[in-house]
Every structure is written in C-alpha cells, then in structure tokens.
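Q: Got a minute? One more chain.
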Amino acid sequence: MRQWKEFSDLVCAAFKTTPSVDEMRARVASANINQESLLATDYLNHFNEVAMIMEMLPDMPDFVEDVKAWEPKSYKQHFQDSTFSEKELAVAAYDCVPTPYLVAFEGATNRAASLLKRSIPELETIIQTGERERIEVVTKDICTKIEELMSMMRSIINGELETLQQGEIDAMLLSPSQQEAEAPAIPEEINNSALGESNLGGLDQNSVDSLFD
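A: Always. Here it is, folded:
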C-alpha cells in the first residue's frame, strides 16, 4: 500500500509540473517549434542523413556499412544529442503534444525507422551483384518510400493533419506485424534476374477516426 501511495504521489507531482498545451504553445512562440503541433522539423535530419547516404550507394556501395550502422532515435533522444539551440524546450514540449499529432507522428516515425532497418538485407543482396543499374533501382525505390514518409512527418510537424488522406493515417497506425507484411520488395525486374521497430495497431477504426475529428 505504501509503495502504491508513493507511486501515486510521483504521478500527481509529474502532472502538476507539466505545462498545459496552451502554456507550452506560448513558450514556443519565438522558437523554431510549431505552435500547433509543438513539434520541430529538426527531427527530420535524423532520417535525412541516412537517406542521403543511401542515395550514394550506386556509386559508393561500401557506404552500405554506414546505413547498417544507423540506429533509430526517439524524438527526445535526437534533441538531447543534437546541437539544436532550443533542444531543451523541444524535449519539454514533446510531453505536451496534442494526442492526434502525437499518434500520427509516432506512427510515421516508427514506420520510417522500420522501413530503413528492413531494407538492409535487400541492399546487401543487390550490392553483392556489383551491378550499378540494379543497385540504383533498389535504392531509388527505398528512398522514394522514405521520402513519402518524411513528407507525412513534415505535414504533421507543421500542424497540417488535414492534408493527410485517411488511408495515409491508417497506414501509420499499422502494428509491427502488419508493417512486416509490407516490407519493401526488390522490384520485379530484378527479382526475375540472377537475384532469383507500437500499441497503436490495437486501435479500432472508430478509435482512430475519433482522434482526427
């Protein structure tokens, strides 16, 4: 009983010290953080860096080791490790992100990170052929998917949920097993050749729709 009371007191204290959404929006007014979503576009650099490396693979296939070394970072971890001038404010603001933006943003970032990690076996297989054109086709296909997800993330960060289609929102809420089923495949023309990382998935459709009303 005593342990439960101590835990309860800690939770209550945390809630008391967490600013309201309106208070946080006032705090970020002069910062490079969106006032509507309370998110910052600097987080996209975490994905931009690996995407740029991937684009160079047709000419510099050895860079695949850099892609393999890339690890997903949470939003808070990215800013804690960054040189972003207002990183402490960005970390604090994340605790106040409105639920619709938080759900959509976490879904998109998890999907992008999962896509990148699942792409590594395809990249290693195609690079072993040593054929530049095949490497270019595969990397372009993967980079296009990453860019699409980053575009969604940018819309969410900029407070533009209404610009997303319901199908895009639904896709961001797939469970890990459903995401695995959508793993990027080597394009058909290459397949026929010698080649021969959420609880959000538990939401039902009504719950998902209600978040975006």
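A: The two ends are 41 Å apart (CA to CA).
Q: Perfect, thanks.
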